[in-house]
Amino acid sequence: MELNDPVTVLSGVGEKKSVTLNKLGINTVNDLLTYFPWRYDDLSVKDPQTTESGQKVTIRGVVATEPTVNFFGRKKSRLRFLLKVDGQTYPVTFFNQPWLKKQLELNHEVSVYGTFDAARQQINGMKLIKQELGSSFDSIYPATKEVKQNTIKKLVKTAFDEYESVIPEVLPESLIQKYRLESFHDMIKNVHFPKSPKDADKAFRTAKFMEFFFFSMRIQQLKKMHRQENDASVVQYDDQLLTKFSQKLPFSLTDSQQKVTDEILKDLNSPYPMNRLLQGDVGSGKTVVAAISMFATVTSGKQAVIMAPTEILAEQHAENLANMFSDFDVNIALLTGATSAQARRAMLPNIENGEINIIVGTHALFQDSVHYHDLGLAVIDEQHRFGVNQRQAMREKGEGTNVLAMTATPIPRTLAITMYGDMDVSIINQMPNGRKPVKTTWISATKTKSALAFLKKQLLAGKQAYVVTPLIEESEAVDMKNAVAIYERFQAIFEPEFKVGLLHGRMTNDEKNTAMTDFASNKFSVLVATTVIEVGVDVKNANVMLIFDADHFGLSQLHQLRGRVGRSSEQAYCVLIADPKTENGRKRMEIVAESSDGFYLSQKDLELRGQGDITGKQQSGVPDFKVADPVEDLNILNVANQEAQRITSESDWKRKPENVQLAKYLKMNQHIFTD
């Protein structure tokens, strides 16, 4: 008997039921015991006379009338009876639970849990409470149509009764003492069967710590495993050439850029493959750091690639790198889906023989037909746009390839550790010298006319502008400005003097590229767009952005959009046009207008919206914790991370007596942390 036994060992769980339980993530007895309630019902008996109307309450009394059931409609019913409590009777009604009649006997005591209606002095019943209930707190679990609440309760009780004696102590005793945690056994017992709210709170505190701690332990193991399985492509770069390249740059690196560059160069020169995430606010100078890293790789005789999510961004990188490396022996090639068959045929042999040493591109870089001579570094730009498998495919194009993933989406460091747990995290938190923060203003829709007057003034001065809107076409259900209507409106206002362009997600890639290229070459003065421009090319001449219905975007998204302007040393402006209907909405507009610090905004976004909204769980890879929340439980997460790093820093940690059960438990439950 052990917790890893399949859930089918429990009575009442056949093959059919196990399939429905599997859908809830319950495959083993351990999965069932760590399937936590999401709330509790307080079933302690109360006096109706001291109960507020609408409050959920348990009332105990004697069944004073014969219960009656009336059926009406399809599968609808109403069960009624009078309950006598301390000499006073209260009508009780249960809807659609006709079977409860068998559990009610005239002149017998019963406890009813339900909502009390003080005006009518009656109870809308939810459930009958059995006399033998050991706790006054009833655990309520996430349930489905296939797996009912009572089924989960019964199975949890059965599993605990049968396996209580074999529940191991998985946390080291030193951690239990240090942080006043409960044992694994007591945590499970008090989470499922608490005798008081205090018991439940203490158990959940331990459960949260365990969840973060086990996750962090698994991440540390993955890091070690990755290092053991791969011999790094060690980059023995030419320090003199690298210094010469840095001196040729038309600007000095900020202290933050220099610190991050040093971290990367140290990784490249180490015997372990680099797996580093570089976070930098919009316009903070990540590309320069990437260029230095790529040049260092080339000076060691190896190749480097930089992979971008769009062809137009890849083209921009190729152009920028060509300018940077114009005085050095670097051969750059651009490989995207748009590369002609003829150009591709000529390019591939030179990539394979190493003559081309920097390759810029999109997904085309890791296709089967592309063979590298000696790939030392893969830089992945806007890495959240690529899936885990795509990043891995790029890594596998070389032997022990070093990976530098870059993102302009600022994420608080601790959350970044959970999102990209097996990566080292570097942060550029300074803007380049001479770069002015974008001046941001929030106005109501009634003042749009003044915003347009300001926009025209900037256009007359030869500048360009983005106009952003949340929707592509008009929706009757949602009262928001839309790209097509705004485009037509702006054409009417500004053409023929200033040409207006349109860019949205439903356009083909060729259409998007054409629109963006035309804007970059100043064929359009105004570009009306949806959020498709969030990650795009630099148009240094664009210094104004108008965002309609700005309250429909998150803080981080607004900051990303705003980052499209202010790409030169000239002052840039962003006007938020919004009439938020909630206090939260107004607060968000004030925060983004006040601050240009992306990391501060991302932290505020987390506090106001939650991690799922800011990172977009589907693409971010944020672990889906059962009870812990990386935002609300930040302190617990920090401590769990630190302890996991401390324990795994010792090579023989698994052999220590207090860690034996921990190592065994982690091995037994690998699926929890790697799926």
TrEMBL record:
Q: What is the recorded name of this protein?
A: ATP-dependent DNA helicase RecG
Helicase ATP-binding domain boundaries: 267-428
The record, for SUPFAM superfamilies, names:
Nucleic acid-binding proteins, P-loop containing nucleoside triphosphate hydrolases
Q: Might you name a Gene Ontology BP term for this protein? A: DNA repair
Keywords, sorted A to Z: ATP-binding, DNA damage, DNA recombination, DNA repair, DNA-binding, Helicase, Hydrolase, Isomerase, Nucleotide-binding
Under InterPro entries, the record lists:
ATP-dep_DNA_helicase_RecG (IPR004609), DEAD/DEAH_box_helicase_dom (IPR011545), Helicase_ATP-bd (IPR014001), Helicase_C-like (IPR001650), NA-bd_OB-fold (IPR012340), P-loop_NTPase (IPR027417), RecG/Mfd (IPR047112), RecG_dom3_C (IPR045562)
Q: Which PROSITE patterns match?
A: HELICASE_ATP_BIND_1 (PS51192), HELICASE_CTER (PS51194)
Keyword Signal present in the record's keywords: the answer is no
Q: Name one GO molecular function term.
A: ATP binding
What Enzyme Commission number(s) does the record list for this chain?
Answer: 5.6.2.4
Positions of the Helicase C-terminal domain = 447-607
What organism does the record attribute this protein to? Lentilactobacillus curieae
The entry sums up its family as follows: Belongs to the helicase family. RecG subfamily.
SMART domains xref list: DEXDc, HELICc
Q: Which reaction does it catalyse?
A: ATP + H2O = ADP + phosphate + H(+); Couples ATP hydrolysis with the unwinding of duplex DNA by translocating in the 3'-5' direction
What's the stated role of this polypeptide? Plays a critical role in recombination and DNA repair. Helps process Holliday junction intermediates to mature products by catalyzing branch migration. Has replication fork regression activity, unwinds stalled or blocked replication forks to make a HJ that can be resolved. Has a DNA unwinding activity characteristic of a DNA helicase with 3'-5' polarity.
Q: At the top level of its lineage, which domain of life is listed?
A: Bacteria
